[in-house]
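Quick illustration, no need to memorize.
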Amino acid sequence: MKKQTICIFGGTGFLGQSITRELANTGARIKIATRIPESAYDLKLYGDVGQIVPVMCDYNNDASVAAAVEGCDTVINLIGILFQKGKSKFKKAHIETPAKIAMACTNQQIEKFIHISALGIGKAQSKYAKSKLEGESQIKAVFPNVTILRPSVVFGPEDGFFNMFAKLASVLPALPLIGGGKTKFQPVFVGDIADAVTNIAIDHANQYAGKIYELGGPQVVSFKEIYEILLHQINRKRALITVPWGVAKMQGCVMGFLPKPLLTLDQVCSLKFDNIVNEDALKLTDLGVIPTAMDSILPQYLKCYKRGGRFAHKKATDKKAA
């Protein structure tokens, strides 16, 4: 059977690394299209010699994008940003660049195009959500058979969600509950997304083409419950302080000027809407993946934040035995 050639845009990030690892296990040849090839060198370790190749790509240049996808069977777009800063704008990252990639795929008759979007963008009114939704529309206009995946909050080793709040809980006496922490999420394991992408890529019938899938885990939890789960995992007690929406907006305005803000005004706007899978949506199970529960993964990488370190439980047991 002919080995696939797959091009991944945005493959150097948290999600991209997991997807690259799983695709490499299928024997596929993988091109990592990136502006800085050196940033993808570590990904070579996931495959055999020459199997994973970083490729220089200028996202602003149509010819450069076309050269990256040339000769590929499947193209995957993971490019995305959580906040705008300097030249990094939602319009470019979520609309213009994905549209360029989709057009290149159409011109070169690429068999499959997989685009990673975001869950809840149909209702949310934030600039982030609107740009993601417009990006989907632009892609479908030129590549109708695109497979779109909309994940909720993604968790796993090296994630920027649970790790960030665990670090904050390690140094702060209290954690903020924006709007009372009532916003609902459906955290999805990064490995499940990687499995879903791999199943789409290796499917010879191309049965997933032209469809949108909403990816969430088996648990629907509020922001407050996420804090409670986190604090239980790291064995710490912290006060949970309700922050009214108005105050959160002011905090977002101020923090938005930081180089890497913990909160922006646009993110506060996003938090007003639940981030959960619709009942009638196509889901992970429709992609042949059984969702992984948080309790089976979080202990593996949050133990380093426990009071007393990762061996705190063993130390306590040994002390009692003595």
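The domain at 5-155+187-217+276-291 is CATH 3.40.50.720 (Rossmann fold).
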